[in-house]
Design goal:
- Helices cover about 50% and strands about 15% of the residues.
- With about 150 residues, it is an alpha/beta fold.
- It has a five-stranded mixed β-sheet, with helices on both faces.
- Strand 2 and strand 3 form a beta hairpin.
Length: about 150
Amino acid sequence: MADIKTTTERSKNMAAIRSRDTKPEVFIRKQLFQRGYRYRIAPGTIPGHPDLYMPKYNLAIFIHGCFWHRHEGCKYAYTPKSRQEFWLKKFADNSRRDKEVQKLLKEKGIRLLVVWECAIRRANRADDDKLALMLNIEEMIHSEDPYREEGAK
C-alpha cells in the first residue's frame, strides 16, 4: 500500500517526533514532583539514558511509547501498512536495544520501571485511573522489586 504523504511530507512528520519532553513524560514528571519526589531528567551516566532517574531510590524510569517500543497486545502498537520491511526492522532493533538496556541496568543493580503510553493516556481521561497509576508507581518506588511495568492493554 502506498503512503498517502509525499516523501518530503513524511520526512517532516517524522522529524517532528520528539524523544524528550513528550506529553507522557511531562505528565509523569509533574505527577511525581507534586507528590514530593525528586528525579534527574535523562541522565547520561545511567545505561540507556532513562527518561527519569531517582537516585534516592536507585530507580530508572522509562516512559515508552506503545508504537515505538511494541507494547504487546496494545492497540497503539500497530504496524504501518507501507514500508513494512523498514518498520519491522526498526521495531526489532528497538526491542533488542530495550532488552540490552534492561540487562545493563540489572548488572549495575539499578531498578527499572517502564510506564507505557497507554497507561498515561488512560490516566489523563479519568482521575481514578490517574490515582491508580500513581499509586502503582509509588508502590514500585518504595519496593525492592528490580523490574516492573505499568501499562493498560
